[in-house]
Amino acid sequence: MVFRTRRLALASVAAAAATALVAGCASGSGEGSSGASGNTLTLWTHNAGNSAELDVVKKIIKDFNGSQDTYTVELQSFPQTDYNNSVVAAASARKLPCLLDVDGPNVANWAWGGYLAPIDVTGSEVPVEDQLTSTVGTYKDQLYSFGFYDVSLAFFARRSVLNEHGIRIPTMDKPWTKGEFDAALAKLKKSGTFAYPLEMGTGGSGEWWPYAYSPQLQSFGGDLIDREGYETASGTLDGKDSVEWGDWFRSLVTKGYMAKKSGADPNKDFLAGKSAIQWDGSWNAAKNAQKLGGDLAIIPPVDFGNGPKIGGSSWQWAMSSTCSNKAGAQEWLKFSRQTKYFVDYAKATSTIPATDAAAQQIADYQPGGKFEVLVQFARKYATVRPVTPAYPYISTEFQKAAQDILAGAGPEDALGQAAKNIDNNLKTNSNYAG
Amino acid sequence: MTTKTAAPERLRPVRRTRTTNARRRESLTALGMATPAVVLLIVFLVVPVALAFALAFTDARLISPTPARFVGLRNFTQLFEDPVFYKSMRNTAYFAAVVVPLQAGLALILALLVNAKVRGVNFFRTVYFLPVVTSMVVVSLLWTFLYRKDGLVNHVISTLTLGHVQGPDWLGDPATAMPAIILMSVWQGVGFHMIIWLAGLQTIPAELYEAAEIDGATPWHRFCHVTWPGLRATRTFVLVTITIAAFSLFTQIRVMTQGGPLDSTTTVVHQAVRTGYDQQQTAYAAAISLIFFVLVLTVSLLQRFLTREKD
C-alpha cells in the first residue's frame, strides 16, 4: 500500500520533471545549428498542393541525390498559406531547414532577421548575371536567393469584345493612357453587357494587394516608401501622386467599373464572360489562351503618367543561416542552376523563365511566341517591391489602406495613416539597422 | 480508489500513529495527483502569461537580429495614440453589450421551450445544439457565402418582399458588418448556453411548480417566483462565460472580414493577432493583450460582485 502510493507519487514527479524538461528544451536550446544530420539536408518548400511545381522540385532533388554520393536532400512541403508562419516558428525555435524557398519581397526581412545566409553559386551552369534581375534576391549587396522564374501582371481581354466597343487594343509601344482606359471602361459599362467590366481580383487577400495595385500606384508617380535610404513613407505614400491613385482606385468602385469585392475565382468569372478586362498574373495566361485561342489579347499595363509598371519577384531559393552543412546546401543550389530546370519550372507553372537560354527552349516565350510579351513586360516594366526588412510591415499597411479606400475612406486619410504607421515602425526599429 | 477503501481494515490495530501516517500518505497522494496538472498549468498558462506581460515593456519583434530591449511604457503610449485601438475597444464593447443579453435571453427561451414535456423535444435539443459542435471557422465560411450580395440571405429577403427590398452587401458595408457578425455568433453559440440553462432548469424541484400551481399561480408568476430564483447559480455562470467569450471575439472576424470594412469589425484580440503576427510587432501585441487581460478581469470581478450572494 505504502509502496504503491510512493510509486504513484514518484511516477507523477518523474512525469512532471520530464514535461518540464521537454518544455525547457524547446525554448532554451539556444544558439545552435540544424537543418541537416550529417550529410542529409532538409529542404522546405511552400508547394504542397501545387503538384506541378512540386514535381519539379522533386525531380531536381532526385537528380541531385543520384548525381553524387556525399549528400542527400530530403523534401518537406507545406501549404502556401502556412508556409511563412512555419518558417518564422521554426526560426524562433532554431529549427530551420538547410534549404528553403522564400517569397521575393520577404528576402530582405529574413536576411536582416538572420534567417538566411548569403550564398555563393559561382561555378554553376547558369551564371547569376544571366537572370532577370527581379529573380535574384540581394540584401546589402550580398546574394541571398535566386528564383527560376518570375511572374508578370497583364490585362487580359477578348479582342472581339474590345473591337465591338471600338476600343483600341494597345501595344507596348503605345499602351493605354489613364484617359483612354477610363473611357474604355465607361463604354463597356454603358453597353450594359457587364455588371462590372473591370476585374482586378479585389476579393483576394494578403500579398496580392501590394503585388497587384502598388505598381499602379507607382505608375501614378507614388510609391510605398521613399526608396532613397528607405527611411520614411511620409510624403511618398501619402504624397499628391499617391492620393491621386487613391482617388482613381476608389472611382472604379463608385462608377461601377469594378466590384468592391470580386468573386471567389476572378479568372473563372472572366472566362465565363462576366467581366471584359481582367488584371491578373501571367500564371493564368496559358489557361486563358487555351480557352480563348486567338481571341485573347494580352495587354500591357496602363501608363498612368510614369510609364506602365508591374511588380517583380516571385518565389526564390535560399539557405538558412543555421544550416549545419552549408557546403552541402550550396552544392544543391549550384546543381539546381541548370537551364533544363529553368525550363522545367517555367513549363510546369506557366511562368516566365528567369533566363533567355531557358526562354528560347519554350516555344511560347520565344520571339514571336504567344507569351513573348509577358517576358517583355517582366523585363521592361518590372519594379521590385521595396527591398527593405520593413517590407512585410509596409505590405500589411498598404493592404489595409487600399481596402479602406475601396470601402470609402478618404485616400488622403487612409494613405496618411499608413505612412504615419510605417514611419513609426521604422523609427521604433531604428530603420532596421543591424 | 481501491487503495483508499482497503486502507482502514489494515490500519486498525494501532490507530493513533497510523492516522497521522495515513494522512501524510494521503496528502502525498494528493500532491502526486495534482502535480501533472499543476506543472502543465504553469508551463502552458502561467509562464506564457507572465512572459507576455514582461514582453509588453520591451521592443521584442517576431523577426529580429537583435535581442529585445526594455523600452518602458513606449508600447502603451503608442497604443493610446492608435486610432484603430479605440475602434477595437469600441467594437468589442458593442459586440459584448449586444451579444451578452441577446444570447443569454434567447438561450433561456429555447431552454424553457425544450424543457416542456412534449413529443419530439430531443429532436429540437439536437437541432439547436448542432451549430455548437460545428467548428467556428466552418460556420464563418458558410455564413460568408450566405451574406454575400448575391447570397442566400439577400435572396430570401428579396423573395419575402416580392423583390421590393434588395439586401445590402452585409459584410462589405460598415453599417451592417458588425450586426451581421453578431447575428451569426448568437446563432452559433446559443445552443451551448441553452444546454446550461436546461441543466439549471432541471435542478428545480417539480414539487415547487406543483405547489405554485395549486396556489393558482399563472405561468408568468411561476416563472418569476420559482424558475428565475431557482436559476441563480446558473445565471452567474452563463453571464460570466458569455461575457468572456464575447470579449475574445476573433475567429469570425479573422475569417469573415479581417477587421474591415473601415475598421468596423476590428476587435481587441483581432488587433493583437494582426499586429503581433501579421505585422511582427510582438511587444506591441503583448501590450494589447495586457490591456485586454485587465479589461476582462475587471468586468468579470464586477460581475462577480454584482451577482454575489447577499446575506
From TrEMBL, chain A:
Which residues does UniProt assign to the signal peptide?
Answer: 1-23
Keywords, in A-Z order: Signal, Transport
- Report whether Transport shows up as a keyword of the record: yes
| Gene3D superfamilies on file | Periplasmic binding protein-like II
- PROSITE patterns, per database record: PROKAR_LIPOPROTEIN (PS51257)
Membership in a protein family: Belongs to the bacterial solute-binding protein 1 family.
| Identification of the protein by name | Extracellular solute-binding protein
- Which species does this protein come from? Streptomyces lancefieldiae
From TrEMBL, chain B:
Task: Give the UniProt keywords, A-Z.
Answer: Cell membrane, Membrane, Transmembrane, Transmembrane helix, Transport
What superkingdom heads the lineage? Bacteria
Instruction: List, alphabetically, the InterPro entries matched.
Output: ABC_transporter_permease, MetI-like, MetI-like_sf
Please provide an example of a Pfam family that matches this protein in its UniProt record. Answer: BPD_transp_1
Transmembrane regions = 28-57, 93-114, 126-146, 177-199, 237-255, 283-302
Question: So what family is this one in?
Answer: Belongs to the binding-protein-dependent transport system permease family.
The protein's name: Sugar ABC transporter permease
Write out the annotated subcellular location. Answer: Cell membrane
Start and end of every ABC transmembrane type-1 domain? 89-303
> Which membrane topology term applies here?
Multi-pass membrane protein
Species of origin = Streptomyces lancefieldiae
